[in-house]
UniProtKB/TrEMBL annotation, chain A:
UniProt keyword list: Acyltransferase, Transferase
Keyword Transmembrane: no
Region Disordered, annotated ranges: 1-49
Protein name (record): 1-acyl-sn-glycerol-3-phosphate acyltransferase
SMART domains in UniProt: PlsC
A Pfam family matched in the record: Acyltransferase
From TrEMBL, chain B:
Organism: Streptomyces zagrosensis
Domain NAD-dependent epimerase/dehydratase positions: 5-237
UniProt name for this protein: UDP-glucose 4-epimerase
First-level EC class: isomerase
One GO MF term attached to the UniProt entry: UDP-glucose 4-epimerase activity
């Protein structure tokens, strides 16, 4: 970690633990000042080499602040003059990295304390299709999965999630979803993204999974028509099964008001022990402890190109992916000590 | 003997420019410009025939001049005259195309037909894929307005191509054409001092530069070059995408986010005052946006646009002057703020 030239600010000892994250955020910000020489003689104890102690050097802290501010102003300047790039899908990488991820990260690190396993199963380059279970009434699991892939993958890859069409009908949400790199769950978009070498995330259970009652938690629903398999076969991208534990209990859905759902045009309207009883307070998710486990990738380039049109193979692969996720879910549940810790 | 090219819709700026350009082609003998009204701009020596393509006279014209290439550019979203009615535009678009195609079918000399269509045939809906290819069916067909016209026009063109398989037909679906003199609805929209937008939506837009539009029309009207094929349907758009928010910031025009029913109402007010036309399909475009795939344009048609979407827009912004919030002024303010910081001062 000799290249970790980090000037921390603040006296919080926690900054030391977050060393690695600080490296990334600092690197992303434009002009860095040269690192002031280490003043070992002034430091009472040897610090880990990643981070230079800040507490006893008030000027170092001030410089860090000013740099942050300068970086922030640089960012502001680009934003208000429109000087940034978006891709064909409306993905705004800069906004996602600097703003949206920073908003989600506290939730990911502090609230749900997500533990990630098997990150090595996501390839460093090239397309891959991550297939995950879907749960929790509100699609927080997709967002957390996106943070997990971005923060823990060695190449900091961006997960391009496929979202339901409802997302793109709702104002604000559709705008944010596009900017965060999500797109409509359809074969055309998925294939285009995979062929461009992106990591695509899909939750084939859809509304059946996310809107299932609490009593059916961790029971995988039907995987649509398995369209994701044929898309992966066409794009010759590996399929990475992914199991998410903890999202089911964030909003335990004990009832579903079909009338209200029909009235609002939503596929379900959740009733949890706290929502809508406590109003907006009831919309706060329960602080469960999450685990995200990526399984062994299933290669698709071993099949001939015409295999995408073979329904038998498609069903078999769909079942294989589904079974893998279900078994991993059970394994993770057995291993889990408590829902909240 | 050289070719004889007939161009419709020459009273528009784009049509006029195309006539002047195609005349310079070495193998083109004569160019005949047709429109219902006389153009205000010169046609560079091309013959102008004042004829309404909704009338059967167009057939006589084709036979009389032994026309072999027809470039149909009289498909427009907005009336030429700001006071013109939408009904007349629709009639010219649809009935005019029917008449013209009927005349072409009867004219044995016609060997090539180029139709200027628009990407609005795809509509804009939240259920559509993010990127349209030429074969993507629209999830919700446009219910009216210019978009429906183009869908109908393309339907008639397909019928014509079936009945006259000997004619090379190319349909060019243009994204929003912007340029110094393009009169597309979106150009009118960006000329507003404050841009009304739909709350909570940031559409993806694509633009084509006028020069590129002229060039691709020329390629489609010529004999195909070696290794390319210029009959078929092609999406024409500059590379890349701009979000509406980005476009408004680059243009320096403030936006006014409104609820979509309010925009519809405001649109009718603006239309009655005669400032701009806020048609329902334009509101849909400004809600959900539209992006097309241009692989066919590059690989089959062999055309590479000179301007990317962002460059087209930069040019447009330069030619129209800064808005109320010029990006340069905003950047300067931020720079001054940064210079006020000791760290910033040390660095720059």
């Amino acid at each position: 970690m000799a290249d970790a030239k980090v000037i921390p600010f603040g006296e919080d000892p926690r900054t030391r633990r977050k060393g690695q994250r600080a490296v990334r955020t600092q690197r992303a910000q434009a002009p860095l000042q040269p690192v002031p020489p280490q003043r070992d003689e002034e430091q009472p104890v040897a610090e880990p080499p990643v981070v230079e102690a800040a507490g006893d050097e008030p000027t170092a802290g001030a410089v860090g602040w000013e740099q942050r501010l300068a970086g922030g102003l640089d960012f502001l300047r680009r934003r208000i003059t429109g000087d940034y790039e978006v891709d064909d899908f409306g993905f705004d990488e800069e906004l996602t990295d600097q703003v949206l991820m920073s908003l989600l990260r506290p939730m990911y690190e502090k609230y749900f304390r997500v533990e990630v396993r098997g990150m090595e199963n996501i390839p460093r380059t090239g397309g891959a299709l991550i297939v995950a279970n879907h749960s929790g009434t509100v699609p927080l699991d997709g967002l957390m999965l996106q943070v997990a892939v971005h923060d823990h993958h060695p190449a900091n890859r961006h997960l391009r999630l496929l979202a339901a069409d409802l997302v793109f009908m709702l104002p604000v949400i559709s705008e944010l979803a596009r900017k965060a790199g999500h797109t409509l769950a359809c074969a055309e978009d998925a294939q285009r993204l995979l062929e461009r070498g992106e990591v695509v995330g899909v939750m084939p259970e859809g509304f059946k999974g996310i809107g299932k009652p609490f009593s059916e938690r961790y029971k995988l629903q039907r995987f649509g028509r398995g369209g994701f398999v044929s898309t992966a076969l066409r794009a010759r991208a590996p399929i990475v099964p992914c199991s998410i534990v903890g999202a089911e209990e964030t909003y335990p859905m004990v009832g579903n008001s079909k009338t209200l759902a029909r009235l609002l045009g939503f596929p379900y309207f959740p009733i949890t022990p706290t929502f809508p009883l406590l109003g907006p307070l009831g919309a706060v998710p329960l602080p469960t402890k999450w685990t995200i486990q990526f399984g062994e990738p299933i290669p698709t380039d071993v099949y001939p190109p015409e295999a995408a049109d073979d329904p038998m193979l498609m069903f078999n692969l769909t079942d294989q992916v589904r079974e893998t996720i279900q078994h991993t879910l059970y394994k993770l549940l057995v291993r889990r000590r408590s829902v909240f810790f | 003997m050289g070719r004889v090219v007939l161009v419709t819709g020459v009273a528009r700026q784009l049509g006029g420019r195309f006539v002047r350009r195609i005349q310079r082609e070495p193998d083109v003998d004569r160019v005949i410009g047709v429109d219902a009204v006389a153009p205000e701009h010169h046609l560079g020596g091309a013959e102008f025939v004042q004829a309404d393509i909704r009338q059967p006279t167009i057939g006589k014209l084709l036979a009389e001049h032994q026309v072999d290439t027809v470039v149909h550019m009289d498909i427009n979203g907005t009336p030429l005259n700001p006071r013109g009615s939408r009904t007349a535009v629709k009639e010219t678009n649809v009935i005019g195309t029917m008449q013209l195609l009927g005349a072409c079918q009867k004219a044995p000399t016609v060997a090539r037909l180029v139709v200027k269509s628009s990407t609005s045939v795809y509509g804009s809906a939240p259920r559509d894929p993010a990127v349209f290819t030429e074969t993507t069916p629209a999830k919700s067909l446009p219910s009216g307005g210019f978009a429906k016209d183009t869908v109908e026009v393309e339907g008639y063109v397909r019928g014509f191509a079936r009945r006259r398989p000997d004619v090379a037909v190319s349909v060019l679906r243009f994204a929003n054409v912007l340029g110094p003199c393009a009169d597309s609805p979106l150009a009118e929209y960006f000329a507003l001092p404050i841009l009304p937008t739909i709350i909570g939506f940031d559409p993806r837009l694509q633009f084509v530069h006028e020069d590129d539009a002229i060039e691709v029309l020329r390629i489609a009207a010529d004999e195909p070059r070696r290794g390319t094929l210029n009959s078929g349907t092609f999406n024409i758009a500059g590379d890349g995408v701009l979000l509406l928010s980005q476009a408004s910031r680059r243009l320096g025009r403030p936006t006014l986010p409104l609820l979509s029913p309010t925009v519809t109402w405001l649109g009718s007010v603006l239309r009655s005052v005669g400032i701009t036309d806020f048609s329902p399909e334009q509101i849909r475009l400004l809600t959900h946006g539209r992006v097309v795939d241009t692989t066919q344009m590059r690989e089959t048609l062999g055309f590479v646009p000179r301007y990317s979407t962002a460059e087209v827009f930069t040019n447009y912004a330069r030619s129209h002057g800064p808005g109320l919030l010029p990006p340069e002024a905003l950047a300067r303010t931020v720079d001054q703020l940064a210079a006020a910081l000791p760290a910033g001062a040390g660095q720059n």
